Amino acid sequence: MIEYVDTLLPYITTILLISSIYAIFSLGLNLEWGFTGLINFGHVAFLAIGAYTTVMFNMSGFPLFLSVIAGIVLSGFFGLLLGIPTLRLREDYLAIVTIGFSEVLRFILLNEQWLTRGPFGIHGFERPLQDVIPYQHYNTFLLIVYLVILAIIYLSLERLVRSPWGRVLKSIREDEAVPSALGKNVFWYRLQSLMIGSAIAGLAGAMLAFYIMYIEPNTFKPIETFHAWIIIILGGTASNKGTIVGALVFYTFLSVTQFTNRFLPFTAHQMGAFRMIVIGLLLMLLMMYKPEGIFGKKEELALSD
Amino acid sequence: MKMDILSVKNLKKHFGGVKAVDGCSIAIETGTVVGLIGPNGAGKTTVFNLISGFERGVGEIVFKGIRTDNLSPFKIARCGMVRTFQIPRALTKMTVSENLMLAPKSQAGERIWDVWLRPKRVREQERQIREKSRDILEFFEISHLEDEYAGALSGGQKKLLEMARAMMIDPSMMLLDEPFAGVNPTLARKISRYICELCEGGMTFLVIEHDIPAITKISDRIVVMNEGKVMAEGEPEEIKRRRDVLNVYIGGEG
Ligand SMILES: Nc1ncnc2c1ncn2[C@@H]1O[C@H](COP(=O)(O)OP(=O)(O)OP(=O)(O)O)[C@@H](O)[C@H]1O
Ligand SMILES: [Mg+2]
Description:
The complex is a heterodimer.
Chain A: H1 2-35, H2 44-59, H3 64-86, H4 91-111, H5 113-116, E1 122-123, H6 138-161, H7 164-174, H8 177-181, H9 186-212, E2 214-215, H10 222-235, H11 240-256, H12 268-289, H13 298-301
Antiparallel strand pairs in A: 1-2
Helix pairs in contact in A: 1-6, 1-9, 1-10, 1-11, 2-3, 2-4, 2-9, 3-9, 7-9, 10-11
Chain B: E1 4-15, E2 18-29, E3 33-37, H1 44-51, E4 58-63, E5 66-67, H2 73-78, E6 81-83, H3 96-101, H4 112-117, H5 119-139, H6 155-167, E7 173-177, H7 185-200, E8 204-208, H8 212-218, E9 221-226, E10 229-234, H9 236-241, H10 243-250
Parallel strand pairs in B: 3-8, 3-9, 6-7, 7-8
Antiparallel strand pairs in B: 1-2, 1-4, 4-5, 9-10
């Protein structure tokens, strides 16, 4: 029994850690898509910028806390750079440009070895309070910190989307002609949403680096962006609570099914593909029986112009 | 003599071969109601789109002494011009109340830093805006729908919502695109009276309307458009007697 708890607790801790990191990552996308209607298919780029900036700043001598801030700011700044040329255009332009950007960035990270060590990745970098917290308790410590950060991000976003600022975002999502006719600068609000969403992803990137202790370009493949989309749809678009629960459900599923190949005649590679098939099927079932997601509002789906 | 709040000179907008607006000039005096009438496809809505910046055309538009023909819609709105849409644009997944509360200009809470730094001021403003929205909803007789999703409203109710939202701003000029279409007659008369009241308070109106008795009753002047051009302009009584207008649009008695 004791043994069982000894292996189960760390396991649950890792699931909660990874869920909290990707919950924050997805909350950023939910602000962009769920509340503003922006289609960002390259959200993972900002996770990468956050992770690499934090680690590289720290390794070149900046204090850890400042390095994390740099990661957040730089992610937001790249959101701004991508938003300026695209957010005045039709919404699909942002989708195209962001997915292109996330892949170009990954290839830069792979190829500019002098800067990023390319495919070898970076490891052995500093983690917060690593000299103070005993190694065997480190994940527990990290989990507590991450849950606090998640709570702060969640409460801040809730406050924002319920404010007049959030009301403007929602009106843009519904029909940008209306806020325009009322004198709201739609472009500027879209830009703010993209910057904040990207900065939040940057924070998640730093958190990811501290947890996995090793970053390499292929940690940031486009599939991560689509996982965030799945999480948002699963939880219910435009619900922050739903996004958090969605992340927990999704990563619990991913992680639990990692062990099922003991019972199934699959290789690890086949198992990976099989999991995606199951996720696809589950999503289809969800869309059929609960199309609004876990915390989405059913009555909203029936509305039309 | 009063000033012209809006003057449009030689406005043109072509869609491929369709000359939607083809050399249209209109001048509107401050504090008047001007009716814009004409057959379907005459180019009335397109003129609204050009004036409010939603379409780009050729020609000169001067609003309150400012050239606005190159400004984006939100900047024109900030100059004090609000428009409604012929086909109502309800923000479907927002409540009726949210639709109205969105409208007022320069709300503190629309700035992200003020949400954090001046929560008291934001709350106080929200309270005032909510009060105002309730008054306006009551006027338009849709108070009971306050917390409904706008997408759940009937066609006529959406039309009222569209107008109610515009009334949340106190603009210098309002462009109303067929405000009475689909609105029940008693309410239409009430809205007419309200427009006249606001007009006495100094607001200017340009109103597109096919309901000839209603529009001639509230208008100081009428502009008649046909095939992208202004074909007649004058006082309502004068317009009603014009033979050419009768033939093209209103329909003669014989
Ligand atoms: N976006 C567009 N693309 C192509 N043609 C257009 C467009 N908008 C308007 N038109 C054309 O321009 C002409 C004028 O249209 P407009 O909507 O201004 O008419 P209107 O006077 O408002 O008519 P109604 O009384 O029916 O509302 C029409 O022939 C219409 O087909
Ligand atoms: Mg029209």
